[in-house]
Amino acid sequence: MRLDLATAIFWIGCGQLCVLVASALVPVRLDWRRELAGLPKLVRQLFWIYGGYVVLSIVSLGLICIVNAEALASGSLLARSFCMYGAAFWGIRLVLQPFLASRPFLTIWWLHAGYHVLTALFASFLLVYLWGAMRGLPEVSAPRALTHCRTKWLTSHGLRLPRPCAVLYDGSRGPKGSARRVRPTQAPPPCVGRRLASFGPSPGTWPCYESAT
Questions:
Q1: Residue 146's CB: how many other CB atoms inside 10 A?
Q2: Which residues, 6+ apart, have CB-to-CB distance to 19 below 8 Å?
Q3: 7, 32, 40, 207: most buried, per Cβ within 10 A?
Q4: Distance CA 149, CA 163 (A)
Q5: Is 165 exposed, middle or buried (0-12, 13-18, 19+ CB in 10 A)?
Q6: What pTM was computed for the model?
């Protein structure tokens, strides 16, 4: 069974809501009411406000993923932006996980197990959000350095790139056999060949040559 992005986003939405179970246990296990009693009232109020905002953020992330899984997997700019935010949110939380002084409070086996389950959940959230953030990215043309190397290679073989035409590759590092220049036409000649990632996103993208055969 192949996992598609929309299904993965739906399930991490459910997982993010499950994290709220651990969030609900934190004030109880850490005895916030007693530990914060010695602080000024304003500090206590702000502490609860900040905690409430974190819970609201997790609820929002989870519900949006569940309700809009297909839209978030579409690769639109809005979907990628949301996934970038989700990746940043959980990525920072995952990085902070080893530095939290939580060991003295993990006094029961199920607390130890829950700590590791949370770490695995944070990592899965990060990976799926990164997957969504990269979905639908526009194909970019070759970097300038790569274009320069390609042009230099063709020049060293006595070839020149005409503009409106397309290059014919056979999947190897260069044109197959002899090649002849094609006069610029309104419709470029058909390019045949396999995708050549080192020269471009797909056949027909580059200015090129057709086979002499």
A1: 13
A2: 58, 118, 121
A3: 207
A4: 17
A5: buried
A6: 0.64
